[in-house]
Please model this.
Amino acid sequence: MDVDDVVDSVSARTWTPGSWRNYEALQMATYDDKALYETTMAKLSSLPPLVTAYEVDNLTSLLAQCARGDKFIIQGGDCAERFVDCNADYTTAQIKLVVQMGAVFETATGVPPVRVCRIAGQYGKPRSSPVEKHPTLGEIKSFKGENINGFEPTERAWDPRRLLEGYWHSAACQNFMRGLQMDPEFAPKMLSGLDAAAYKASPKYASYAKTVSEIQSAPPNVAGPMFTAHEAMQLDLEEALTREVPGKGFYNLSAHMVWIGDRTRQLTGGHVEYFRGIKNPIGCKVGPSMAADELQRLVKILNPDKVEGRLVLITRYGNDKVEAMLPAHIRAVQASGVPVVWQVDGVHGNTVTAANKLKTRKFDDVLGECTKALAIHRELGSVLAGMHLEMTGQPHVTECTGGSINVLEEMLGNHYETLCDPRFNYSQGLEAAFVMSHAFRGADVA
Model:
């Protein structure tokens, strides 16, 4: 079947928020207690939305500007949020890191950021296997995020009531974020503590220190919106929070942006079916297993009306594969005529296992992929519109190695706190903004 036949076949389907149920949807939890499940879904469907259609449309407009090179997406946050971290101090630290990264990028390059956080809903995670072996309990379900089950081995049963817990935590986080941004002292609070001292080991330290000095003497405007985003893995949850807006269509109002993971992007599967009908800006991870012709089909299915800012392609190959794979994908999309927003995810293709069996990522590999992607886009007349990282605002976390603070492999166990994949800590996240802005202005493109 050629490209147009596949696209026509999917596009001819009648779409509703629940039409995904007619197709295979991978990675989703299912529940034995059907009565409890139905009660939970009914409650979720009646609760207020977490964001507004106006905010969603605003993000689409801003992402279109990013695709043209007028703005740049700074996106990041936890791999998998923890309910326990839904508190003022932790949330403030997450927002502060994203704001400071955006301030660094804008001051160094002159390009304003669009700030998108992996927050207020990133409670579900796909896993390579639905089960794992436990030394005493035998086979147990894999941890799929606190929306689905608990991290402790004895709490791995799939419980639909956790979906409601996720909603309440998301609502609390959203409420706090909105209040934080309304504070007249938001800018000085967010920029306080910004310092380049941690990067003295970097050969670019003088440049980083100059950027910090410029921010301190003439702070950029950081009062713009902060957007939320998460991977929409559990489609029944997403359907329950989908609302029809008169005259506009259906919006997923659980977040401003949602994305499809690399494991759930099947062209005729349930996730693509659901995503093609909602009006949000939507993302899709693009990894090494994506064929160029498959990507052409995908962009035509997900953005048939060629709306600028609607479709974000989040590439994640690995530092050693990006140069071999990204050019063909860029050319395939260019040939399709579908406008997309290109974003580089430097973390997911660069996960390795340390000697102590902990998963980790090397700072140089992550930023190597990001800066190589930037150079490739420019060479092919394309625009890299943003970067996407898993990171935490906590300075003490030791989950990724390297960076100017030089986290060594033997230090990983000191403060390894993630429930799933390793994250940059505060210093590494901020340094990523310094490195990327340095490359962006042409001073150091890999």
Observations:
- The chain has a mean pLDDT of 96.
- The radius of gyration is 21 Å.
- Residues 3-441 form a domain with the TIM Barrel fold (CATH 3.20.20.70).
